[in-house]
Amino acid sequence: MSASKLKMLAIDLGASSGRGIIGEFDGKKLSLRENHRFSNDPVNINGSFMWDILRIFFEIKNSIRNCAVSDDKDIKTIGIDTWGVDFGLLDKTGRLLENPYHYRDKRTDNINIEAYKRIPRDKLYNITGLQYMQFNTIFQLLALSMQRPHVFDNAEIFLMIPDLLNYFLTGIKKTEYTIASTSALLDAKKRTWAKELFSPMGIPEKLFTEIVRPGNILGGLLPDVLEDIGDIKAKIINVASHDTGSAIAAVPAKGENFVYISSGTWSLMGTESKEPIINEKSALYDFTNEGGVNNTIRVLRNVAGLWLEQESKRQWEREGEKITYNELSDMAEKSEPLKCLINVDFPEFAFPGNMPERIMNFCKRTGQHVPQTKGEIIRCIFDSLALAYKRTLRQINELQSVKAPYIHIVGGGTKESVLCQLTADACGIPVYAGPVEATAIGNIAVQMMALGEIAGLSEAREIIADSFDVVCYEPKNTGIWDDALGRYERLISI
Asked: How far is CA 467 from the centre of its chain?
């Protein structure tokens, strides 16, 4: 290790915003600073919900350009992570055929009916190990083959979103393992494309590229990119390009059998395993098996997250009321606990729109107290999320046959201290919260591995634990949550 700090750039793309984050490592501690932030705004056009991928690429170049014209021009590497499941298609000349669809687009509504005629649900799960989500890539591709088959006539290459952006930067077409594992097109045990799934779903096998592991050095920037941004000699690294894969790599946990929650728009709650857990019980509980760093498997459930609060806040702002998340949390904390509950995974809550009205209607329809104030609505969301976590924790303990000693929350949800405390109360075990910027940290940690600066995941987590603050929430008021779980589970069957 040289005396000077090692600099790396993490491009962290979320469903509503993107950031460029500079990571600096001095041999002992890692520090972060933001060099660019931008809004990621999907677009409704002609009845379709799509990503503005060229705008996203423009903003990525802005982040790199900010390095080129500053003291950060000596960055060694760049890594991109994004949300999962979405993709782009290239034609034989390497041109993008169309803007990628957003996973919340409704073209996959009820797609499971046709999908399971072609491949039975249990067979699909036994191969891929993924829980059913109607927006899984395999279902998006099935919808494309049914509704617009001519697109496949012109398609030559399939790339997941981070791989597509890496291609725009380098001209190299590869698929990174952790993002591929979100597609339901990967054999979870063999960790290769499950080619037997392609033909029944009408998906051309020729579209798929070589799979590479996190830490692969992909290549340098294309000449036309350099002309646009300036002289940057950094190499592009295939990090854990699924944002949850990067976030879990940054969990500063010690020992085994811990449970994590990557908390943001979604709550990804699970445990880390050396091998997939695919059996009748994991299928019953709808657990997914996604790839992680150093050949680990993320055994987890995709639970609705802070989307419920975010969309409620957006609705109040559409109605002309400006309010902060801190103010909403304070209102929730002062509201009566467990007065009403919702099934946080109820399909009606998955789409944009008037979330408070839908929550009120759900409570009315299920014979509960109907929340009237903002505080009651947010408290309803927080209590329901805490119970969803309690239920998922019980299932994880069953799958592992071991009781988890604690829960570690990373990501933006760590800033919701009220929800963190309620999670500890509901689950009856300590909750550790932090770091907030877990995804960017995990992204940078893999870049450090690729450069040979650190040996692997254990060393990365030790460095992260020494570099960033973690808050501990001890369980309190645990007695009221067991009965509440029964109420919550009855709502799931509605």
From this structure: 23
C-alpha span between 37 and 40 (Å, rounded)? 10
- Token match 């590229």: residue? 209
* Helices and strands in the chain, H and E counts: 18, 21
Q: Are 217 and 450 in contact (CB under 8 A)?
A: yes
Q: Choose among 228, 225, 236, 99: nearest CA to 161.
A: 99
CA distance 465 to 340: 38
User: Which of 105, 243, 383, 425 is flagged as catalytic?
Assistant: 243
**Cα dihedral angle (351, 431, 482, 391), rounded to 10 degrees?**
40
For residue 326, give the amino acid letter: N
Give the count of beta carbons closer than 10 Å to the beta carbon of residue 34: 13
Q: How far apart are CA 435 and CA 260, in angstroms?
A: 12
Q: For position 1, what pLDDT does the model report? A: 41
Helix (H, G, I), strand (E, B) or coil at 361: helix
The rounded Cα 21 to chain-centroid distance in angstroms is: 18
Give residue-wise pLDDT tens across range 204-221.
999 999 999 999 999 999
CA atoms of 418 and 328, how far apart (whole Å): 10
Place of tokens 């505080």: 375
Closest C-alpha among 472, 369, 374, 381 to residue 419: 381
- The DSSP secondary structure of 403-435, one letter per residue, reads --S-EEEESGGGG-HHHHHHHHHHHTS-EEE--
Q: Contact, 21 vs 444, CB < 8 A? A: yes
Tell me the C-alpha to C-alpha distance, in Å, between residue 101 and each of 47, 53, 93, 260. Answer: 11, 10, 21, 29
Cα–Cα distance, 290 to 305 (Å, whole number): 19
Can you say whether residue 459 is alpha, beta or left, with left for phi > 0 and alpha for psi between -120 and 50 degrees? alpha
CB 276 within 8 Å of CB 284: no
Report the predicted TM-score, pTM, of the whole model to 2 decimal places: 0.91
pLDDT score of 124 more than 90: yes
Contact predicate 442/248, CB 8 Å: yes
3-state DSSP assignment of residue 161: helix
DSSP H/E element including 24:
strand 17-25
Q: For residue 423, how many other CB atoms are within 10 A of its CB? A: 30
Query: Is 243 assigned a catalytic role?
Result: yes
End-to-end CA distance of the chain: 58
Mean per-residue pLDDT, 143-159: 97
SS3 71: coil
How far is the C-alpha of 19 from the C-alpha of 21, rounded, in Å?
6
Report the candidate in 117, 106, 282, 281 with the shortest Cα–Cα distance to residue 201: 117
